[in-house]
Design a protein that fits this description.
Elements lengths: L11 H15 L11 E7 L4 E5 L12 H11 L5 E8 L10 H8 L6 E5 L5 E5 H4 L14
């Protein structure tokens, strides 16, 4: 009997496409202060990919991470149901891991979708948003007041 895939498991071709897209997005990184390039590629439920890069600013605190750039692009184009996001950096020996702010922004749009944390050689580890941000605060919590 065919095994049912968990809802956040992608086909191998989709994963490859997402990995290539985040590496491509990394090329656009605007990071003159950190010189730390990051790219992200966000896959919607209906198969579209929105990419993003980090965008820094001379006023350092205004910098935006690649993950949030991709999410903001998708939301502003009318897409808010996500299957997965892949993230790429230039770190050879470590999988790039989203910052706390990005985890919270991902969580806004659900806890059961996948985050692919990659290395430049195309290897990755994957976790759900829930695994990256357990016991989180989300939209439903705002309904739980008397
Ligand atoms: N950065 C990202 O874009 N995503 C991450 O997952 C980690 C960090 C950016 C923020 C800043 O532009 C640079 O990397 C150094 O922190």
């Amino acid at each position: 009997m065919a095994q049912k895939r968990p809802s956040c498991t992608l086909e191998p071709e989709q994963i490859q496409q997402l990995l290539l897209s985040c590496q491509e997005a990394k090329k656009s990184a605007y990071c003159p202060y950190s010189n730390f390039r990051v790219g992200a590629a966000l896959l919607t439920r209906d198969g579209r990919i929105f990419s993003g890069c980090n965008v820094e600013n001379a006023c350092y605190s205004l910098g935006n991470c690649a993950e949030r750039t991709a999410i903001q692009k998708a939301i502003s184009e009318g897409y808010k149901d996500f299957q997965a996001i892949a993230v790429a950096s230039d770190m050879k020996d470590d999988f790039i891991s989203p910052c706390g702010a990005c985890r919270q922004v991902m969580r806004e749009f659900g806890t059961k979708w996948a985050v692919y944390m990659t290395k430049p050689d195309g290897t990755y580890v994957t976790k759900t948003v829930e695994e990256l941000l357990p016991a989180s605060f989300g939209p439903q919590d705002l309904q739980n007041v008397q």
